[in-house]
Amino acid sequence: MKEIIPELKIEHIKRLAAGGNRADGRSLGQFREMSIERDVIGTAEGSARVKLGKTDILVGVKIELGAPYPNHPDEGMLKTTLELRQIAHHSFDPGQMKNRAIELSRVVDRGVRESRMIDMKKLCIEPGKKVWMVYLDIQVLDYDGNLFDAATIGSIATLTGARVPASAFGLGEDFPLPLSEMPISTTFVKIDGHIMLDPTATEEAVADARLTVTMDSQGNLRAMQKGLSGAFYYEEITTAIENSIKTGNSIREIIRSG
Amino acid sequence: MKEIIPELKIEHIKRLAAGGNRADGRSLGQFREMSIERDVIGTAEGSARVKLGKTDILVGVKIELGAPYPNHPDEGMLKTTLELRQIAHHSFDPGQMKNRAIELSRVVDRGVRESRMIDMKKLCIEPGKKVWMVYLDIQVLDYDGNLFDAATIGSIATLTGARVPASAFGLGEDFPLPLSEMPISTTFVKIDGHIMLDPTATEEAVADARLTVTMDSQGNLRAMQKGLSGAFYYEEITTAIENSIKTGNSIREIIRSG
Amino acid sequence: MKEIIPELKIEHIKRLAAGGNRADGRSLGQFREMSIERDVIGTAEGSARVKLGKTDILVGVKIELGAPYPNHPDEGMLKTTLELRQIAHHSFDPGQMKNRAIELSRVVDRGVRESRMIDMKKLCIEPGKKVWMVYLDIQVLDYDGNLFDAATIGSIATLTGARVPASAFGLGEDFPLPLSEMPISTTFVKIDGHIMLDPTATEEAVADARLTVTMDSQGNLRAMQKGLSGAFYYEEITTAIENSIKTGNSIREIIRSG
Amino acid sequence: MEDIKLIDDEGKRKDGRAPDDLRDIRIKAGVLQNADGSAYIEWGKNKIMVGVYGPREVFPKHLQRPDRAIVQVNYSMSAFSVDQRKKPGQGRRENEISKIISEALEKIIISNQFPRTSIDVFIEVLEASAGTRCAGLTAASVALADAGIPIIDLVPSCAAGKIDGQIVLDLDKIEDNIGEADLPVGYVPKTGEVVLLQMDGHFTPEEFEKAFGMAKEACLHIHKLQREALIARYPLEAGDENDGENADGNVDDNRGASQ
Amino acid sequence: MEDIKLIDDEGKRKDGRAPDDLRDIRIKAGVLQNADGSAYIEWGKNKIMVGVYGPREVFPKHLQRPDRAIVQVNYSMSAFSVDQRKKPGQGRRENEISKIISEALEKIIISNQFPRTSIDVFIEVLEASAGTRCAGLTAASVALADAGIPIIDLVPSCAAGKIDGQIVLDLDKIEDNIGEADLPVGYVPKTGEVVLLQMDGHFTPEEFEKAFGMAKEACLHIHKLQREALIARYPLEAGDENDGENADGNVDDNRGASQ
Amino acid sequence: MEDIKLIDDEGKRKDGRAPDDLRDIRIKAGVLQNADGSAYIEWGKNKIMVGVYGPREVFPKHLQRPDRAIVQVNYSMSAFSVDQRKKPGQGRRENEISKIISEALEKIIISNQFPRTSIDVFIEVLEASAGTRCAGLTAASVALADAGIPIIDLVPSCAAGKIDGQIVLDLDKIEDNIGEADLPVGYVPKTGEVVLLQMDGHFTPEEFEKAFGMAKEACLHIHKLQREALIARYPLEAGDENDGENADGNVDDNRGASQ
Q: What pLDDT is attached to residue D205?
């Protein structure tokens, strides 16, 4: 559900873009200021609040016991859920946002999963019977664009600080989630032929196309997703990948130091 | 979903109330005539049809085997369901009545549960594995106000006459539900500052606020629920409690003799 | 959801019917040309594509392991599902088609079930624990009337060619579904007092009443279903039964030779 | 289960009925206050309440028919109406029965008098014991008449079936469970039309003929019970009761009286 | 569980509180960008975010009221807000709480100024630890004021209860789980009206009186915290703060300033 | 599973293909009667039917766009299309694929010719064997052309991936299950634009470049198959077939012929 943006505002954003500028003063390839606050929710096994510009997201992880999938009997499970509830934006009508929320959660999930960030085999307690279930729940409190990256960053920050509550189930001491990689997504939009990193809500509403690139700490691609009804040229994609390597490293620094 | 009531009728009801009178000739604190017919449904383990004025409610209980909640492994379970189906009133559109039906069933359930009427531990057969599940289903056939009390009274009458079908499962002889208390709810509305017991549909449609008081046979409070967008003063609440003790005792008499 | 048919077309169909004729040149009691193609879906344990005039239906059966119903512990299970998806006709709005799809699938299911076509007891592996579940799924690709018969014929053709995938579960060699009967349904509509076999979409839209007769290979009745808001006289029903015996035998020939 | 004998050596069924006996049927019209028309039926152990509302404006509008009323039947089983508790919400069986009863009633309602409206029929099965769709349709047409909705005729409905190889009327629960065939019929006495017909099980064409005939005869008897229920509800017209030819006319007259 | 002592020999509760002590409460107004008004409350371990949108046109239209605004509250628990993960989607408990908070707010909103509109209140429970409905209602009325919606008064809300046979204020999680009674109250200081009242457990009438009085006193205290939160949000009016009599007027003035 | 070799010592994949070989692809246009346009594709073991309806008025109206048509894609897996039966109803995966194919098609449809309308595309996966989103998009644009809906170009789509550390084209089911990366691409030959792009697994930037190039080349080949399918459907224009430059013009001409 694109928001309706007045024609004048659209023209303004396009004119700025033509000169390499943006309404909030950033350069086209620049990420917004970001803050990460961890362990904000006592009932969660890990949590993080991410503010990316005015976008405000809260992520919590619950880790519980469950039965594994029959075709992966020796692996823990990851379930990622994101809800776009109306508190975050007046246009977030639950029915109409369903498709968008599903895509968002699946792209976040794919980044975590495909990077093999979590060692799922270490979350198996008894093969075929009992494994740790990792429920990653993402809640959007305030929306000003780029939920893809805010949600991924919040998820990564949450997972890196999470502890498996083994002692509560008489299964030894609590331990940190067994993690290796730290995937980071970066999202770009295309407006009038100009590629912009980390779009605001207004930029998203004007954008022709969207591209999310999720990379690992080695600079390798782990997931990509093109969205919206516009298109990209190949060169635009490779340029985005280059930016993504650089930006991803900065973001990783913020998470590690957070 | 309040019914639309003509302005003239509203004025009439308010004028009557100002003089301490009601459209059906009752005094403000008077309960309507009530009849209770028990064991009306052969397929149920207990049942009762309650007619409270023109309000007509049928309650049935089914008692089946099931697994207990993990956090209450040695207790049977109670599930209370109430449906406001359109046969009872033309305004009972299923979608719009959902909230009202949920509140009703939860208030009835709370009265039964909080009074510890049913000794849930006696409904455990094998801790953690097998318990008796008590399904209390309330069906409204005709609506003329005060579903809260009609549903509670019908439920109490049903439960007091219900038998656990142990023999059908090879678990010994059938036995009555293990009961102690007999909670009764009384519901009041406030119209133009006047408190009325046991409102009719028209009175409910005109009412500013509603208060349900559920008391046990010792004259103690077990559950309360304020409803509608009006308010009560403290003195109105205590007056309602006093009336509730008296009215509850009369109703208990009717149930016992029924 | 009847399609809206122009008045002129309705008159045309009725005039033709009065002379014993139909728009596509058939006689009133004549079935359309039909083709059956089997084993068209590699992932299914059996499948058939049936083209009945321009009606085009794909049926697939999946056979999986499951637990039996508690009240039939020594029998396999049959679940029949039919979806009227919008690809088949522009009027097939999912919400509005629900009732029609349920009736269709239940009538098909009843024909298969009541003829005791499948020997359900032979699908029991371990009584009370493990049985074969037969999932019959019917998909309509193109709609030009008489989905009842096309779906039944497609289902029968699918079941007669299906194999139980025992080897995949280490339960011995694959084997054909244990079948005896071959029920066939024939569907008639009544237009202006004239009974027509195998109606097209246009004829269905004009029809007053519908009658489906499902018979076994011995010429005995196994299931019937009257539909639409018209009515039949008794003589019309017995005439339909007579036609059904004859037509059913021809269809069985086509299935056997297919 | 197959060795249970449903008919004894003297030709009696387990509840003592002869093959062509109906279970006891009691019908009462006008039993609810809010509904525009209503009827309650006890048929054997079946207990069913029917309420009718309408004609009233159709919502949503795209369901409106410019030339006639639509008939919307909601057949619903109470949670406690069956041996094993039924979960709330309309299941597939209830959905199908709602549809076929709706289609049967559409045939008898003179629906072109009320274009763009809906006539809503709520059939609440409070206790079920085989034959609820016939009992529900039987009571529904009484409730329609009670609501003053013009109908061609009351529709009685009854099933015939086969047990122990023999054609019998009106299967009860055990007969329905282990019997060989069931044939519910809705029949309009005035026109001789069949407005509801289903069948499952195993009938030779000859058995079908016999079963149908038995169900039809029962419908004629039930039709009398329906009329008596309406007469009891509107006793002012009781004098007309003997005039069988005007039975349907009476129904219309009753309507006038009830408005 | 019954032999856990919730009050020690010195009259202290497990977290050290006296019987009539509240848990720590912190309220912040104006914490979201998109919402027309918002508030965040930490109450003990409860963490709740409230956003208000409106007045805005009601959709679907049949919910519109020609004479006033409707108030739609959505109280929702985050999946991670409780010990055992809550599945997404509104459950029956959330539905009921949404309804009673909605009814409480309708009483204080001067809703006839905005006919045909809706005022939507989203209460997101981020961490739950007993008393969320009171904390949610308390924060919601602050968020309404922050949105500039005219209200009669702020509504503070607090529960009293019974543990170890003694009446205490503001049950925490363990007290709520194994305590004997709970009485959440929403109270309008300006009018003395009770706009939210529920109770479950076991109270004698005398215990009810004591518990109600304790909850009411607490509400008066919480009312101050609510006003302080709004004053902190709109510091230009900070000078008016000492004038208690005009507190509600200040809220309205703040509204003007925030628009 | 990791020790299964997907490429043998001679560089052949398990089904005998070279790394840059496509599976067999057959496309047929105009295969349904009721749909305004349709196409059937077999791609390896994938079998997919696509039907297009529209442009037609949008319902509900608030989805209408005053300046253009909207494109609504419904990608759906048949219950029997996979090894373990899929339950009816659209799952989250189907929902996402519907969305990305819809967005890809919106780019090629000249949608401003049909304001306030909807173009509905139904993609029915009858048998699935890896690569259904590419096959579905490929067939969908053929069905759009068959429906006479003006498009900029046909969109071919194909995935490249990585197995045994090597970049290969068009993963089949086992390669998709245990391979290391997958990159589905939808490419518009006329403009060089990428309208569908997803990726998961592990690619170095260099591997991505190679995989993308391989997918793009395959798209150019598939584009020919799409045009041939349309030419076979509308043989009157067969003479134009050799004129590659006018391929897209042909599509438009075909449209005229089919109306």
A: 97
Place of tokens 């019970």: D225
Tokens in use for F130? 């890896």
Least confident of A105-119, B92-106, E89-103, E138-152: B92-106
**How far is the CA of A235 from the CAs of A62, A232, B144, C129, F212, in angstroms?**
41, 8, 72, 59, 11
CA distance F175 to chain A (A): 16
D3 pLDDT exceeds 80?
Answer: no
Phi-psi region of E118 (alpha: psi -120 to 50; beta: other; left: phi over 0): beta
Rounded to the nearest 10°, the torsion over CA D225, D228, D232, D235 is 170
- In this complex, do A60 and E78 lie within 8 Å of one another by their Cβ atoms? yes
- Extended beta strands in C102-242, E state: 124-126, 130-142, 163-164, 175-176, 184-191, 194-197, 209-215, 221-227
The predicted-structure confidence for A67-93, as pLDDT tens digits, reads as follows 999 989 999 999 999 999 999 999 998
Q: For chain F, which domains are there?
A: 25-233 (3.30.230.70)
Q: What is the pLDDT of residue A4?
A: 65
Residue C142 and residue F47: Cβ atoms within 8 Å? Answer: no
- Closest to F52 in 3D by CA, of F65, F66, F67, F71: F71
User: Residue E52 in contact with residue A87, Cβ under 8 Å?
Assistant: no
D63-78: b (≥16 Cβ within 10 Å) or e: ebbeebbbbbbbbbbb
Q: Is there a contact between D117 and D56 (Cβ–Cβ < 8 Å)? A: yes
Whole-angstrom Cα distance, residue F230 to residue F255?
10
Residues E71 and E155: beta-carbon distance below 8 Å = no
CB contact under 8 A, E194 and B114: no
Question: Which residue in F34, F79, F126 is closest to C142 by CB distance?
Answer: F34
Element containing residue B131 per DSSP (H, E):
strand B130-142
Helix (H, G, I), strand (E, B) or coil at B209: strand
Cis? peptide before F55, omega within 30° of 0: yes
- Domains of chain C: residue spans and CATH: 7-257 (3.30.230.70)
Contact call for F53 and C86, based on CB within 8 A: yes
Long-range contacts of B173-176 (CB under 8 A, 24+ apart): none
Chain F interface with A: residues with Cβ < 8 Å: 71, 92-93, 95-96, 98-100, 102-104, 106-107, 181, 183, 188, 191-205, 208-209, 212, 216
Distances (CA, A) of D42 to B50, D25, D120, D125, D161: 19, 6, 22, 10, 20
C161 to C60, C78, C82, E50: CA distances (angstroms): 10, 16, 19, 61
Question: Order of strands across the sheet with B221-227?
Answer: B194-197, B184-191, B209-215, B221-227, E193-203, E181-188, E157-163, E166-169
Residue-wise pLDDT for B83-129, tens only, equals: 999 999 999 987 888 999 999 999 999 999 999 999 999 999 999 99
Q: How confident is the model at residue E58 (pLDDT cuts 50, 70, 90)?
A: confident
Integer Cα distance of D234 and D250 in angstroms: 10
Cβ neighbors of F255 (< 8 A, separation 6 or more) are: F145, F148, F149, F150
Banded pLDDT at E235 (limits 50, 70, 90): confident
Cβ contacts of residue A30 below 8 Å, gap of 6+?
A197, A198
Q: What is the DSSP letter of B68?
A: P
pLDDT of residue D52: 98
Structure tokens at D253: 């007259």
In sequence order, the 6+-apart residues with CB closer than 8 A to the CB of C207 are: C189, C190, C191, C196, C199, C228, C230
Of E32, E85, E127, the CB nearest to A141: E32
Q: What is the pLDDT of residues B57-79, one digit of tens each?
A: 999 999 999 999 998 999 999 99
Locate C154 and state its tokens: 């497609």
8 Å CB contact of E203 and B221: yes
Cβ within 8 Å, pair E204-B241: no
Q: Residue with structure tokens 């560089």?
A: F11
